[in-house]
Amino acid sequence: MSDICLIDDDDLRSQVKQHPRAQELLRALLYPYGAPDHDFVLRNRTVLPFDAGSPDDIAQVLAGRVPVLAAGSNRSPRQLARKYCAPFDAGDIPVTRGWMHNHDIVYCAHLTGYGAVPATVTPCAGTTVRVAINWLDPDQLHHMHATESLGRHYDYVQIPAAGVVLDCGLTVARVGAYIARYGSEFSPGDTFALADIAAENRRFAARSQWQMLQYVARRAGHVPHPDFIIRLIEDENFRLAQNGLRKP
Fold first, then answer.
1. Which residues of 150-184 are buried (b: 16+ CB within 10 A; e: fewer)?
2. How far is the C-alpha of 116 from the C-alpha of 27, rounded, in Å?
3. According to the model, what pLDDT value does residue 53 have?
4. Taking the model in full, what pTM does it have?
């Protein structure tokens, strides 16, 4: 359980270390997981550099693939490897990094089945946020849809990418994005950005995953504790009751 060292809070780290379901807790608490801050290709669960040359050369390599904004964990090799494991053989998944103007990456007002507060993208005038783009072929995109609970937690939309500036110099007109059906407000005015994702001129307060889970627990009248996360995992009705203001 070497990942326990990634938990900054001493008390929480001790509680997780002693918990019989520590691995499940880590999956929730470490969201959105680590990710390289450079372009890469995920191949057979291995991260390789992605340097295809000029923007024109890169465009040829990526031809036929759909650019999809990876707002939260989908930018992480760990999550991509989890989603594209056997029996689904994904093949290469190129990921490019860049900045997106007038948007921010914020927590969704719903919770995942593994007990984390996930992410979505939202317009935010004046904010520039660090983003990743997954380049998916049609089969990979279809499989990604299946992992994102379309129609229940997210809608898949195409949004103009005029404000996206990729490190590699490639220009894209539009990107796919998973937009949270419950929005990003758990309570009126309570929208929070992901502290683990860099941004400039941020308007929303930034919180870590544990800070968000503490917020959700207190909002529900519970003491923030790893056992609260386990209840979110085990009790679907309890988990759904913590969703935010908007109803899908």
1. eeebbeeeebebeebebebebebeebbbbbbbbbb
2. 8
3. 86
4. 0.95
